[in-house]
Design brief:
Layout lengths: L1 E7 L4 H11 L5 E8 L5 H8 L4 E3 L8 H14 L4 E4 L8 H4 L6 E5 L11 H8 L3 E8 L9 E8 L6 H24 L3 E4 L2 E4 L17
Parallel strand pairs: 1-2, 1-4, 2-3, 4-5
Antiparallel strand pairs: 5-6, 6-7, 8-9
The chain binds glycinamide ribonucleotide.
C-alpha cells in the first residue's frame, strides 16, 4: 500500500477528495501524515477528523527556506512517505526538498499548464480571454509548475465567469483527477518517456471541444 504525505496550506478540499477515494477503496493508499505551513488551515481539521497524523511546520521558525524544507523532508521520511502530494500548499520548494523525492512529488494546479503558472491563475485566465481552462496534476521539479504533466481536465470559461465561478468549476475537476492520478501512480499504471507521462490504461477521450459552442 502506498504511503502518502500531503502538504497543505488552506481549506483542504483536495485533501478531502484523496481521503474520500481511500475510504471508498477507489485508491489503495494510506495518508501517513498531513503537514501544514499554516497553523489555522482547515485542512488540519479535516485530517484529524479522519484520524490522520498532522504536523504544523511554520517557515518563520527557520532561518532560511532550505532548513525549512529539510525539516519537511525529515518529517516525511520519519513517516516513511513514498509519494508527496501537494494539495494547495502555497510555498515554493527548494532543491533540498525536490531532490529528496525525485519524481515522487505531485502537485495540483488550477490551470492548463504550461499556461498560467503561479498564483491567482483563475483571474489570469479570465483576463487573458482563454475559452478553456482547467487543472493539471504534474510531477514537481525544480521549476515553478514546470514538471511532467500526469493528468489534466478541461472546463469552459464563459462570458459571465468571475474568478469565483471559474475557480469552483475547476475545483470540481481537481477533486476528480487528483485521486485518479495518485491511483495510476500507486498501481504503476503509467510509464515516463522524458517529459511525457503515458497512461497504460485505455479509455475514450472526447476527440474535440469547441467554445463558444457551434450550433448543430
Ligand atoms: C486548489 O485550487 C489548488 O489547485 C490550488 O490551491 C487550491 C487549494 O484548494 N493550488 C495552487 O494554486 C498551487 N499553485 P484546497 O485547499 O481546497 O485543496
Amino acid at each position: 500500500m502506498l504511503n502518502i504525505g500531503v502538504l497543505v496550506s488552506g481549506s483542504g478540499t483536495n485533501l478531502q477528495a484523496i481521503i474520500d477515494a481511500i475510504e471508498a477503496k477507489r485508491l489503495d493508499a494510506k495518508i501517513a501524515v498531513v503537514i501544514s505551513n499554516k497553523p489555522d488551515a482547515f485542512a488540519l481539521t479535516r485530517a484529524e477528523k479522519h484520524g490522520i497524523d498532522t504536523r504544523v511546520i511554520v517557515k518563520d521558525a527557520f532561518p532560511d527556506r532550505e532548513t525549512f524544507d529539510a525539516e519537511l523532508v525529515r518529517v516525511l521520511n520519519e513517516h516513511k512517505v513514498e509519494l508527496v502530494a501537494l494539495a494547495g500548499f502555497l510555498r515554493i520548494l527548494t532543491p533540498v526538498f525536490t531532490r529528496a523525492f525525485p519524481m515522487r512529488i505531485m502537485n495540483i494546479h488550477p490551470s492548463l499548464l504550461p499556461s498560467f503558472t503561479g498564483l491567482d491563475v483563475q483571474r489570469k485566465a479570465i483576463e487573458y480571454g482563454v475559452k478553456f481552462s482547467g487543472c493539471t496534476v504534474h510531477f514537481v521539479d525544480e521549476g515553478l509548475d514546470t514538471g511532467p504533466i500526469i493528468m489534466q481536465a478541461v472546463v469552459p470559461v464563459t462570458a459571465n465567469d468571475t474568478t469565483e465561478t471559474l475557480a469552483k468549476r475547476i475545483l470540481e475537476e481537481e477533486h476528480k483527477i487528483y485521486p485518479e492520478a495518485i491511483r495510476l501512480y500507486a498501481e504503476g499504471k503509467f510509464k515516463i518517456l522524458g517529459r511525457r507521462v503515458l497512461s497504460a490504461e485505455s479509455g475514450t477521450v472526447e476527440a474535440s471541444l469547441e467554445n463558444p459552442p457551434i450550433k448543430k
